[in-house]
Design goal:
Elements lengths: L18 E5 L12 H10 L4 E4 L7 H10 L4 E3 L1 E3 L9 H9 L4 E3 L6 H7 L21 E2 L2 E2 L1 H13 L2 E3 L5 H13 L4 E5 L10 H9 L3 E5 H4 L8 H11 L4 E4 L10 H14 L4 H15 L11 H7 L13
Parallel strand pairs: 1-2, 2-3, 4-5, 5-8, 8-9, 9-10, 10-11
Antiparallel strand pairs: 6-7
Helix pairs in contact: 3-5
The protein binds zinc ion (ZN).
């Protein structure tokens, strides 16, 4: 399948039908370029099929529900980042997020112990500040073993067939987590920005994780001019090395020094194209694989109780909520 050839001299990446699984928007403790609605409209207008909203400070599951209710013609999903604001790796918070239709469970980001070690504190990224700052953060390992609540959360992710994302854990924590996740039946695992400062995985470790079934999530922001934490060549070489079926591209956008998410995703995909990655491989990384991770072909997300009755069995289930 060929996408987006143009008469102006070279191939252009076409965003139609693409999915961005990693977008930051307001409300957030960090300054943001857009709010949830604005970025959903921008993504929809750029032709995207679905987006996932991520917030370091609260669950985005209900925010996504209201956003997709109000913005037509795009699927909007959320998840939960397990930072201090939700009680770190808190099974009750994860259970609620997944039963409300959450798609991604992100391990601690700016509140991870490893993040604090590398950045000097929890709660900020240097230029992105505004969270609660502490010298210590959360570690998933205790005496070399995964904490009980971490294993409980892995079981919940497996039960809901949700996505586990490794975020800012240390390389050793990520390996222990992914190996255990596979044993607990977690099918969908994203290795969040493997080459960013946290975790900054080496290729052998990343390859080991991909062989276990994980997918590497590469971010535009990592190569953006302001952060420049990784290079376009490293990302393109990693895609060639791991195989495009083991990688996805996302924007991770939302900072005021970066383009709005769909444009950041387009730039990133276009850079990969110009580094020799094929259109088919780019399509896999921005369309087919993210769509499979979000189960987009199993039916549209529910927008309202009225819609549930209209769609009937065609609606994607919100989870087996037996509550009244
Ligand atoms: Zn992010």
């Amino acid at each position: 399948m060929k996408h987006g050839t143009t008469g102006f001299g070279a191939d252009l990446v076409d965003l139609r039908g693409a999915v961005d699984m990693h977008i930051h928007s307001h409300p957030c403790m960090f300054p943001r370029l857009t709010d949830d609605f604005e970025v959903a409209v921008a993504a929809r207008d750029a032709g995207l099929r679905a987006i996932v909203l991520k917030c370091h400070h609260e669950s985005t599951v209900s925010r996504a529900y209201y956003t997709r209710t109000i913005v037509p013609d795009i699927e909007v999903y959320g998840g939960i980042v397990l930072n201090s604001y939700v009680g770190y790796v808190n099974p009750a918070a994860v259970d609620a997020a997944l039963r409300f239709g959450g798609k991604v469970v992100w391990m601690p980001t700016s509140d991870a112990g490893y993040h604090a070690q590398i950045h000097g504190s929890t709660g900020n990224y240097g230029t992105q500040a505004g969270g609660i700052e502490n010298a210590d953060g959360y570690w998933v390992l205790e005496d070399g073993k995964l904490k009980d609540e971490v294993v409980e959360v892995l079981k919940l992710i497996a039960e809901h067939n949700a996505v586990l994302a490794t975020c800012h854990l240390s390389p050793a924590e990520i390996v222990a987590l992914v190996e255990r996740a596979r044993k607990e039946g977690v099918e969908k695992i994203l290795i969040t920005h493997p080459f960013y400062k946290v975790p900054n995985l080496d290729m052998a470790t990343l390859e080991h994780l991909c062989k276990l079934g994980a997918i590497a999530e590469f971010i535009y922001t990592g190569v953006s001019p302001f952060w420049a934490a990784e290079t376009v060549d490293n990302v393109a070489n990693a895609i060639r090395h791991l195989g495009a079926d083991r990688c996805i591209l996302v924007s991770d956008s939302g900072q005021r020094h970066n383009p709005v998410a769909p444009e950041a995703l387009r730039l990133f995909a276009q850079m990969m194209l110009e580094k020799g990655i094929s259109q088919d491989d780019i399509s896999l990384m921005i369309r087919e694989t993210p769509a499979a991770l979000l189960d987009l072909d199993k039916g549209p997300a529910v927008r309202s109780p009225v819609e549930i009755s209209r769609l009937g069995s065609k609606a994607a289930p919100l989870g087996d909520c037996a509550c009244s």
